[in-house]
Amino acid sequence: MKKTTFQYMALSAMFIGTFGLASCDKNDEPTPSPVETKQHFVCFNTVDQKIDYLGTFADLSQKTVDNKKAFEFAFGAYPFAQGNTVLVADGNGGDKVHKFTRDANGYLVRGESVTFGQGSAPGEITFSNDGKAYVVLSQRGKISILDVQTMKQTAEIDLSQYAYKDNNPDPGCAVLSKSKDKLYVALQQKQTRYTAYPGIGAEVAIINLKTHQVEKVIKDDRVGFVGLFRHTIAFTDELGDMYFYSLGMEGNNPLKDGFVRIKNGTDEWDKDYHFQLSKTPATGIDKPHGWILYYYYAGNGIVYACVNIPSLTMHNDPAQSSILDFNYQPVRIDVRNKTIEKINLPLTTSMGCFTYGKWKDEIVFGMTCKEGTGYYTYNPATGACSPKPVVTTVGVPSSLLVFE
């Protein structure tokens, strides 16, 4: 089987005033200022896997999004939001977190930045309800506690003692408990940038946010490591159950992939639940499938993602495959009932399956496809799908935040 990879994965308004000659005609009236269009989307577009452009656009009727008024970042930056605050983490490309505020029209106004230690690779920002943000410093094995108002670090949580064979357990995605008093952080225990030491399995550190102490680390060997940095997420559903996902990418054959969960009211893995995607038939897909990368939890147990179809991989070189092979199919996943269903949107690449959102009644997929690059839509109520992008982009959509 040929291998694919997931590793290679627009803002203030400008006005042009036109001034005519002075006139005494009583019908001459001042030209009204143009009305700014409310911006509902904050997005990143990636160009040549080198530059990420942070910008905004209004809605799905805009048709085209370019990067002419965008903020420029190194490849790998991601946005996180609470209210009208948007924090951008450098990720593997740097050591800063940058603050932006959405103005009355939804445009981004740049604020302060905070710099962590060199090579910290900050990312995976989780907001609390008291003005704090918990920032995973993936290359330092620490969690920074950030005052969002002042953009100052107030404390750190050191996870180094939980590392395997080095002093960094490689913290990945993090999620708050339903009660907001505990932070659950995936420990990836990496051997290389994208793989863990064999046999590590799912490890999650449970941190008491009152004491900033790790209460315990829970482990599950049914899957590979969970919470791959900047590639998968964890979420708490309406029932208070917490889900983590593993791509199963530890050199295991067959894959030890799938969703595992921690049930509400417990701090242990649910031994009665393991949803292995690679072993679950997908309605509408007649070829074997594997893992998903980034995904979107839409509520009521439903996840939207793109699933890898290995037989559609034509290039052995991962860099080529990530941009040339259309081998990921959009799907609807029910994590409670353990079902996978094809969505009739076109195939995309591994670089083009990281961007999702919900706008009104539609699920938005940011993808690069043979049919065009940009935002495609799916209506869960009617099943209607856009055969080509309803909004095209300059560069590949790499992340999306939606504001009603």
From TrEMBL:
State the source organism's domain of life: Bacteria
> Which key words tag this protein in UniProt?
Signal
What are the boundaries of the signal sequence?
1-22
Which stretches are annotated as coiled coil?
Answer: none
Gene3D superfamilies, A to Z: YVTN repeat-like/Quinoprotein amine dehydrogenase (2.130.10.10)
Record's protein name? Lipoprotein
